[in-house]
Structures are given as structure tokens and as C-alpha cells.
Amino acid sequence: MAMVELRDVSKRYRTVRAMENVSFRIPPGVVFALLGENGAGKTTTIRSMLGLEQPDSGTVRVLAMDPRKDGIEIRRKIGCVPDAPKLYDWMKVSEIAWFAGGFYPEGYVAEFERLAAEFELPMNVKIKTLSKGGKAKVSLALAMAHTPELLILDEPTSGLDTLVRRKFLESMVDVASAGRTVFLSSHQIPEVERVADYVAIMNEGKIRVCEKLETLKAEIEQWVVTLENPECSLPPCDSFLLTHEGIGQRRQQLTVRSPEPNALWALRDTEGVLQVDVHTPSLEEIFVAYLKSGKNDWRSEQNSLPRDVPVSDASEEAKS
Ligand SMILES: Nc1ncnc2c1ncn2[C@@H]1O[C@H](COP(=O)(O)OP(=O)(O)OP(=O)(O)O)[C@@H](O)[C@H]1O
């Protein structure tokens, strides 16, 4: 079963297209990161998954349920940390755990206490006296204490210190390796790169690419071309080119995906080309390349989380 599946989901606010034909499918046991700049449509996507926003068209399924009808049930089953969690901050940590525990089966408070100990969170202090990081840990422990199969986190690390952010994200890898699924939205790309199995890059309401991170890193290269003089022209490579930028007068940087086998040699043999250096881009560079290219990568439909292949296969692939 797909933990989350969106098909051609669109949502418009007056003139703003917050989501445009958004499709992706998330198998169990992975960390899935939705990346996008401010206003890309990440929160709208999450709100649609929670049944807090009604899309204009398309289908959303979360744990095989329809958020339009089963929003409350979905929100009860999953764990969620919204972008601005609201906590009763006059309560002590222990009190909020007991309060929340009233909505869940037995065992919630014990698991909360275990998580609090793991996060080094004091139980006997008022929430309002905690740092931002401390409050984020409370939100996360509250979302995780009923051991949900799916954890949805909207910008979970914004405002946290680097070390706390790292620890937090690393704990998400543990959650996924226990077979549960983590969906997180973020614009902290370098950190996401350390933990994500799949990434979707969203821009202006559209998913530009949605793929296994490993595949993106294996297939995308940066070619830095040094020219004899600025007038030299390069051979055509539109079919695999994401971006082409000048770096000063005599250098050009091409970001390419799955280039034709002889393309690099052809480029190196081109008259006026002195040197071509090949680099593996970081996820941040891949992100920028997709944003600049404005392309919707057809491969993300075909290769990443194929619609026609049983999701369990994609999950097995993710673990291997
Ligand atoms: N309730 C609303 N009414 C009108 N416009 C909205 C509403 N909610 C979101 N938008 C617009 O939809 C677009 C997508 O917003 P959304 O909050 O989903 O982006 P985001 O990727 O989560 O951004 P951020 O990283 O800043 O939180 C933005 O242009 C935003 O202004």
C-alpha cells in the first residue's frame, strides 16, 4: 500500500496556483522530502493530505483514505508537526503528555516519556520556559508517541540550532529504518540531503522532479567548460541539458542529466574547448538547476515511484 498518493492535484487561491497537477506516491519505510522555496506550495500540499484544504481537482490518498471524507481519522492515525505548532505552553511537559494521552490508546504517555528522555527533554518544566528547540522536541514527541506509521513534518527544523537540527533529522532515519514513513517539507536542503531517500522538488505549485535521491545524484553531472575565447560555441545538448550558465568570460557550466554516451567526448573534442571538468552536484545545486531550468522532468514519472509498479517494489528498492 502507498502511504501517500497524490494524482494530478490542483489548488488555486484566486490568481495563485498553489498546486498544479501534483502527483507523487510514497512507499512505506522511507524518508520523503518535499523541497521548495517560500510559497512553492509545500504547506498547501500537506494541508491537502490532512484534509484541512480541499483541492480543486485530483485525488489524494493517505493510508488509503480520502482526506476529504476521512480527514479526522487520518489526523488521528498519523503524527504531524505543522509549520507553526500550537502548544498549551502554560502546561508542564508532563502535563501536555497526559493531556494528549487522553486521545490515544494506553501506552502513549510511556512512549512520550521514552522519547523525552531520548531527546533530553525535561518533563517537569513549563513549556513556555523551553527554548525553541525544546518546544520543537515537545511537538515531535507528541506527534510520535502513538508510534504512527506516517509522520508528516512541515519545516520541522526551522529556527533550530545546527546540532539540534542534525540530531532531529538523523532521528528520522531511525524512524524510517523501523519501517515507518517520514514526509518532511523543507528548504534546509544540505541537511535533507543527509537523510532523504526520495526528494520532490516543488516550484510555483508544480513538482519539477520526484525521484530517489541516489538516482538524481548518479545521473546528474556538472560540466565546467573552459574555452579558448568567449566566442567558441558548444555542440547542442538540449536533450539532456538542465541549465547552462556563464561563469566569467571563458568558463561555462552545464548541468546535465543522463547525457548521451559520447557527449562528453564530443564536448572535449570541440574546437576552442580547452578543458571540461566533471563534478557531482550537491542536492542544493540539483535543486537550483531544476528551479532555473523550469523543466518538469518526465523521468520522475517514469523512474521514481512508478504508478504501474506495485509500491512494495519501490519500497524494496529504497532499502537496497
Ligand atoms: N489561504 C490562502 N489564501 C490565499 N493564498 C494562499 C493561501 N494559502 C497559501 N496561499 C498561497 O499559495 C502559495 C503556496 O503557499 P504555501 O504556503 O503552500 O507555500 P510553502 O511552500 O509552504 O511556503 P513556505 O515555505 O513559505 O511556508 C503562496 O503563493 C501562498 O501565498
From TrEMBL:
Residues 297-320 are annotated as: Disordered. It is an enzyme of class 3 (hydrolase). Keywords: ATP-binding, Hydrolase, Nucleotide-binding, Transport. PROSITE patterns: ABC_TRANSPORTER_2. Its EC number is 3.6.3.-. The keyword ATP-binding applies. CDD domains: ABC_DR_subfamily_A (cd03230). It holds the Pfam family ABC_tran. Residues 4-229 form the ABC transporter domain. One of its GO terms (molecular function) is ATP hydrolysis activity. It comes from the Bacteria. This is Putative ABC transporter ATP-binding protein YxlF. The gene is yxlF_2.
